[in-house]
Design brief:
Elements: H1 5-11, E1 12-16, H2 23-36, E2 40-43, H3 48-55, E3 61-66, H4 75-87, E4 92-96, H5 99-103, H6 107-121, E5 127-131, H7 139-151, E6 156-158, H8 170-180, E7 185-187, H9 195-204, E8 209-211, H10 214-218
Helix pairs in contact: 2-3, 4-6, 7-8
Length: 227
């Protein structure tokens, strides 16, 4: 399939997640997403209702982060965050895996943590993406985290929050694509700051792109720093 700006824009999840972002920033970024044909706006929990009201009927969906950015909230808290986000109008949830428990080898805990969010989302048709923070993992651990997310019923695996070290790399994304192999979709995020990098991941076969400057990428300009 030909890679066009329209196609790439539709694959983008545009993140508005920095701590100092205001309601005005949400409004500005929502309008940009609509104008540029961006597929999804990803926001903080307290911005969910505003984003949903701004984007209703536009073709741009709303994703809300859960357990962000460290993943260390208790499963019950993540489930409540998920439920409230859905009530506020979220179409998708980007949850952070409990990285510390994963690195401790507490794999059943991690699976249950993800499943708690999935249980809130799936009956309502809401998509769940699981952020691994892959910069903290080996490639073997990336594959293991993918398996746990799939077992728990997640729809996507995602590389990074964009707040903790290196973002998506081709090596990690390749492992994710190979491991998921049609059982879940893949979303690289973090470090996608120009058109060439976005196209590289699209050509690899990903389904989404997590970005922080969709407008600049789509306009062909490199993005300096940030998400």
């Amino acid at each position: 399939m030909t890679i066009t700006k329209e196609r790439v824009a539709k694959m983008m999840d545009h993140a508005v997640l920095k701590p100092a972002m205001t309601d005005g920033d949400i409004r500005t970024n929502a309008a940009m997403c609509v104008a540029k044909g961006v597929g999804d706006l990803c926001v903080r929990p307290t911005d969910a209702a505003l984003a949903a009201s701004l984007l209703k009927g536009t073709g741009t969906t709303v994703a809300v982060v859960v357990g962000f950015p460290h993943g260390a909230s208790r499963p019950e808290v993540k489930a409540l965050e998920a439920r409230l986000a859905i009530e506020d109008g979220a179409d998708e949830l980007d949850m952070v895996m409990n990285i510390g428990k994963f690195l401790s080898g507490e794999y059943e805990y991690v699976r249950r943590d993800i499943a708690a969010v999935v249980a809130e989302a799936k009956p309502k048709g809401v998509v769940v993406k699981v952020i691994q923070e892959s910069c903290l993992l080996t490639l073997a651990q990336v594959a293991k985290a993918c398996e746990l997310a799939i077992e728990a019923g997640a729809d996507f695996v995602k590389t990074s929050t964009g707040f903790n070290g290196e973002g998506a790399t081709p090596e990690v994304v390749e492992v994710m694509l190979r491991t998921c192999a049609g059982r879940a979709k893949v979303k690289p995020s973090g470090g996608i700051r120009d058109w060439a990098r976005a196209v590289q991941f699209v050509e690899m076969g990903v389904d989404r792109l997590g970005v922080g400057s969709a407008d600049k990428i789509l306009d062909g300009a490199p993005v300096e720093g940030g998400y």
